[in-house]
Amino acid sequence: MTYKVAAFYQFAALPDYRELREPLRTFCAGLSLKGSVLLAREGINGTIAGTSDAIDAFAQELAHGDMFGGRLDNLELKFSTSEEMPFGRLKVRLKKEIVTLGDAAADPTRQVGIYVDATEWNALIAAPGTLLLDTRNVFEVAMGTFEGAVDPGIKSFGQFKEFAAEQLDPAKHRRIAMFCTGGIRCEKASAHLLARGFAEVYHLKGGILKYLEEVPEAQSRWRGECFVFDERVALGHGLRERDKGQARDE
């Protein structure tokens, strides 16, 4: 059986996020979905898997159903597939942040970097004067990244603030293009840099996953595979699953 996998997020004001937890968990359980969903005052973030019909029903409810009342009308949503169920159970958790940075000034609902579509990404990162920045953790970068990207060498996203303070300079780094797995970390990172006075900050809309989905391999500047936080381990161009034999050999 082939399962449909949905990775999604949106920064949106959800002051009632605590009250949303149980209705959302019940709805997902009723569709036999598995995976992880994070709810916070600042929005929603998660990856879940199930049958194609169940995932479609879930996406419809988030964007257009009564549960969120139209507050998730700009949901960043990406689909892929898995030959096996990539999650062991369903988790719906409450968090202080849907992606932890620890900077109150980094508010993507107030200011965020300039989105760049996957089809326009190659031209941006090839332009002279562009600093290409990978905002992911060091073990993710080791599995794959874009040609010429700077690895911040962080073990958790919360360390990005220290990297930016020590290594990035608004006067020197006039144009920054950043990327992450699905786009959510870049929303926070770009908001953080803008709050620190960086003038020109771009980020890959939909993240690496959208790039691998839309850009043909022959035109790609991505090298390696993209780590994902489920049992598939990593995805390649066309969002193909990592070869299981290869995963066992490493």
TrEMBL record:
It is an enzyme of class 1 (oxidoreductase). One of its GO terms (biological process) is tRNA modification. Residues 126-220 form the Rhodanese domain. Keywords: Oxidoreductase, tRNA processing. It comes from the Bacteria. GO terms for molecular function: oxidoreductase activity, acting on paired donors, with incorporation or reduction of molecular oxygen. It catalyses: uridine(34) in tRNA + AH2 + O2 = 5-hydroxyuridine(34) in tRNA + A + H2O. The keyword Iron does not apply. This is tRNA uridine(34) hydroxylase. It comes from Bradyrhizobium centrolobii.
